[in-house]
Design brief:
Elements: E1 2-6, H1 11-22, E2 26-31, E3 45-49, H2 55-62, E4 67-70, H3 82-102, E5 107-113, H4 139-157, E6 161-166, E7 168-170, H5 180-190, E8 193-197, E9 203-208, H6 209-222, E10 228-231, E11 234-237, H7 238-249, E12 254-258, H8 260-277, H9 285-291, H10 300-305, H11 313-324
Parallel strand pairs: 1-2, 1-4, 2-3, 4-5, 5-6, 6-10, 7-9, 8-12
Antiparallel strand pairs: 9-11
Helix pairs in contact: 1-6, 2-3, 3-4, 5-11, 7-11
Length: 326
């Protein structure tokens, strides 16, 4: 079977390309730069120069493909230019869905995010039926929600598609902006001191990368048309997560708490100064708020309908720590 994959130079897409290739799928990997070092290497992976933002290149890449895995997205929350989010996440998704319709693609598996649902309600795990009751915290969340609406628009036009809402992904793979959990694990493994906001009771859901890859294949086979599936793992607060990482890695790091408002105000000041100088901050108040929002979640629907299985958090952390220690 021949598939088109977007986002193959990213953390999830790179691993997915190799997974599909190992299963004897012929993978057309849509990439902007054919010289990128992040293009996955396998005899069954064929790089195709193009851009999800350019419809003509998307349509040319789709020709002859049976299925599409759309994982490409602009995820840099610290960016203040909404056009970058809108062009890639919304218009790019529209190009994929339009080409799918015009080229009679059998099915699209679209990768989205848990954050489109907003925050968890009083630590009650988010489900696919939860209505969003809060405003959008950043342009990434907003445009991913808009892109899901585009998907459903084309489902109504005849495209078959399932949506996967991923929680916080971690595990072996490329070191990119989007795998921040791995960066935290590395800091706990190798740093002597870690300064953190004092809101360590904030709970989120963490999903191991292999579970995400398996979910993509399960969605292709079992995913219902137009349905959303939360793809997650275990829920844990920051205090519990840090303690697990310390225990498994045998780290001696000291974790020191700092007042959340103090950190946020400091970041706002630094961000304002950087904006005046034309540079970009590594962490902004928007990024901080996104990281410290309750996002516990349930994958019961995916388990029931896709036959999805979860890797225990301790097992996934152990494998990740072994990978990062090499």
């Amino acid at each position: 079977m021949k598939v088109l994959l977007t986002g193959s130079t990213g953390y999830i897409g790179h691993q997915l390309a190799l997974k599909l290739a190992s299963r004897n799928f012929e993978v057309t990997a849509l990439v902007r730069d054919l010289k990128s070092n992040n293009i996955p290497q396998h005899k069954n992976i064929i790089p195709f120069k193009g851009d999800v933002c350019d419809y003509e290149s998307v349509q040319n890449a789709v020709k002859g493909c049976d299925y599409i895995f759309h994982t490409a997205a602009f995820t840099d929350i610290k960016c203040n230019i909404i056009d970058k989010f809108y062009t890639t996440n919304v218009l790019g998704t529209k190009n994929i869905m339009m080409a799918s319709l015009n080229e009679n693609v059998k099915k699209v598996v679209y990768t989205s995010t848990l954050s489109v649902f907003g925050s968890a309600l009083s630590h009650v795990p988010i489900t696919e039926d939860q209505p969003r009751i809060s405003s959008y915290n950043n342009d990434y969340e907003l445009t991913k929600k808009m892109s899901e609406e585009v998907v459903l628009e084309y489902v109504n036009k005849g495209v078959t598609c399932s949506i996967l809402n991923l929680t916080r992904v971690y595990g072996p793979g490329l070191n990119t902006y989007s795998n921040g959990v791995n960066k935290i694990i590395s800091k706990i493994m190798y740093d002597k001191v870690l300064y953190v906001p004092d809101k360590l009771n904030i709970e989120a859901n963490y999903v191991y990368i292999d579970d995400v890859l398996n979910a993509q294949l399960l969605a292709l086979e079992n995913g219902l048309n137009g349905e959303k599936y939360i793809i997650g793992g275990e829920n844990e607060d920051y205090k519990g997560l840090f303690n697990r990482i310390k225990t498994i890695s045998k780290s001696k790091i000291s974790i020191l708490k700092i007042n959340y408002k103090l950190i946020k105000n400091g970041l706002a000041f630094i961000n304002a100064c950087n904006n005046l100088m034309g540079s970009q901050s590594l962490v902004t108040p928007k990024v901080l708020d996104s990281l410290f929002t309750n996002r516990s979640a349930s994958s019961k629907k995916a388990m029931a309908q896709l036959n999805y299985k979860i890797t225990p958090l301790d097992v996934g952390l152990d494998r990740t720590i072994n990978f990062l220690s090499k």
